[in-house]
Design a protein that fits this description.
Shape: extended
Low-confidence stretches: none
Structural class: alpha+beta
Number of strands: 11
Strand content: 35-45%
Length: 179
């Protein structure tokens, strides 16, 4: 997820969640807004429905009826497009400024939907190699790789702080080979 994009919650007429999702996806496509509005999600969960006679059936139920989640960069155009989609009654937040979901809320929801898988990033580094951290709290620090975790897209480094080695974990995208 790009830094300038956040997840927002839009309120819809009850029962219109999937229609809003489809309409908005078509609008994004036709107006070339894919770089501003990334993903649209109606979170679902499996629920066991028991009918008369004891027949059990697994059905998909909306976790947040009346709401759709949208990953987007809020600007005048994207706000207008979402706000004026048929079935949308507004953003969750103040009347003038939508309030994004927190990272932990987003992580929890995406995990529940099986969408938390980050693409595997192949980095040409190995344990024992020295790398430079390019962003985050430890930017411009050099560290020696102690552990690689390709599934999570992270690695652990020993970084010298206060005259001693401290282990830090960073994402592959936050490092470059030290020259």
């Amino acid at each position: 997820m790009e830094a300038d994009k956040k997840w927002y919650v839009i309120h819809t007429y009850s029962g219109y969640e999937n229609k809003v999702k489809t309409t908005l996806e078509l609008k994004v496509q036709s107006m070339g807004l894919q770089d501003v509005i990334s993903r649209i999600l109606v979170p679902l969960e499996d629920e066991i429905d028991e009918k008369d006679g004891g027949v059990k059936k697994v059905v998909k139920r909306k976790i947040f009826p009346g709401y759709v989640l949208v990953e987007m960069e809020v600007n005048d155009r994207s706000w207008y497009v979402v706000r004026n989609t048929p079935g949308v009654t507004g953003f969750v937040g103040s009347a003038t400024k939508p309030v994004p979901l927190s990272d932990s809320e987003v992580e929890h929801i995406l995990k529940s939907q099986g969408l938390d898988k980050k693409p595997t990033i192949n980095v040409d580094v190995e344990v024992g190699e020295t790398v430079r951290i390019t962003s985050g709290a430890f930017e411009d620090k050099l560290g020696v790789i102690t552990e690689l975790n390709p599934e999570k897209g992270t690695l652990k480094l020993n970084v010298e702080m206060f005259n001693r080695d401290t282990e830090v974990e960073v994402e592959f995208s936050q490092i470059e080979k030290a020259l």
